[in-house]
């Protein structure tokens, strides 16, 4: 599974434009859907992920994309899929893109 950060988000992830998550990590961390991936990113990149995700006050333990960010799973907007319940697998490409920029 490969996670990409674009639109300036790479600066929040140690200047990395992508992170690869191994099949072993996917299994051990139980990354089954987008929500699980968000929890993984928050847990492992806490300081970085705080700019990309926010707590949903209506659902305990649930995080969502902060306003001004897009998510594409295999080139499809997550909003036309099952949003946070979208199933993920080891061959997926997930893009997080900021729509906010100076200028």
UniProtKB/TrEMBL annotation:
Q: Name one GO cellular component term.
A: cytoplasm
Which keywords, in A-to-Z order, does the entry hold? Cytoplasm, Isopeptide bond, tRNA processing, Ubl conjugation pathway
Q: Name one Pfam family in it.
A: Urm1
Q: Where in the cell is it found?
A: Cytoplasm
Is Cytoplasm one of the keywords?
yes
The source's domain of life comes to Eukaryota
User: Does Zinc-finger appear among the keywords?
Assistant: no
Q: Which residues form a coiled coil?
A: none
Q: Name one GO biological process term.
A: tRNA thio-modification
> Annotated pathway, please?
tRNA modification; 5-methoxycarbonylmethyl-2-thiouridine-tRNA biosynthesis
- Family as reported in the entry's similarity comment: Belongs to the URM1 family.
Record's protein name: Ubiquitin-related modifier 1
Its organism's taxonomic lineage begins at:
Eukaryota, Fungi, Fungi incertae sedis, Microsporidia, Edhazardia
